[in-house]
Amino acid sequence: MVRGLLRKTKENIYKIRCEFKYYGYKPWGIGLGMKLFVDYIKIFTKIDIKNIFEIGANFAQDADYLAYTMRIKPQNVYVFEAHPELYEKIVKIHNFNAYNCAVFNEEKEIDFNIVPINSTNTGLSSMLELKDNIATKKVSVKAIRMDNFLNKNNIETISFLKLDVEGVTYEVLEGFGERIKDIEALHIEAEHGEVIFKANKYFDDISELLKRNGFDMVYFYKSYKQSDSFWVKKEMLKR
Predict the structure, then answer these.
(1) What CA–CA distance (Å, rounded) separates 164 from 114?
(2) Topology of 2-236 in CATH?
């Protein structure tokens, strides 16, 4: 009972903190959806969280919650956001390592479709063309591969990866190359068919790629044609 009360108090403090931190902005949630996966890490894995990566960061609210909850210093948090205006907000709000680029399976300049900064869901911005008459603007951004990024920055492992990239999850994971095996746990959003964009690869392809590289899926939730799933490197699971 005492533990539950302390946890509720900590959550309320976090909510108040976010009211000030995100004042004037419109984040899509404040990261509380990550609470479940923090519990999974603590209860079911042997992972000692050293760093956090968020690709497709939006306002970096998920990375913020993870860092706050698991007491990770800002210098060990890496966030990637291709939307230039969102990136500007991230560097104003947080002290994380922030990068205004897309993450992909190639290193090149790409067209990125952004939704307005005052949109109700800025998380819809994507490399893919959006349908349903959603207003977007094309911007040119640099795309990078994560294996090159990890090698250049001498990062040996990723403790926790949050990946939400609107239809290009498979391509982002491809860009890790052999370094995909250096991820200990990852939460991904994936598609199960065409939604407001048409992806090249869907959940079944992503699942096969992760299983082939030594991951077990420990959580899955599907709503319509999108799902959230949580994967852990096999040897990091408690047996």
Answers:
(1) 15
(2) Rossmann fold (3.40.50)
**pLDDT tens figures, 163-221:** 999 999 999 999 999 999 999 999 999 999 998 888 899 999 999 999 999 999 999 99
Nearest to 188 by CA among 171, 177, 198: 171
Contact yes or no for 103/55 (Cβ under 8 A): yes
pLDDT at 2: 47
Strands (E), the chain: 52-55, 77-80, 97-99, 102-103, 108-114, 137-144, 160-163, 185-191, 215-223, 226-233
CA distance 28 to 168: 20
Structural domain boundaries in the chain: 2-236
Q: Name the amino acid, one letter, at 94.
A: H
Q: Which residues pair with 173 in a beta bridge?
A: none
Q: What is the pLDDT of residues 107-141, one digit of tens each?
A: 999 999 988 887 778 788 898 888 877 878 899 99
Strand order in the sheet with 102-103: 102-103, 137-144, 108-114
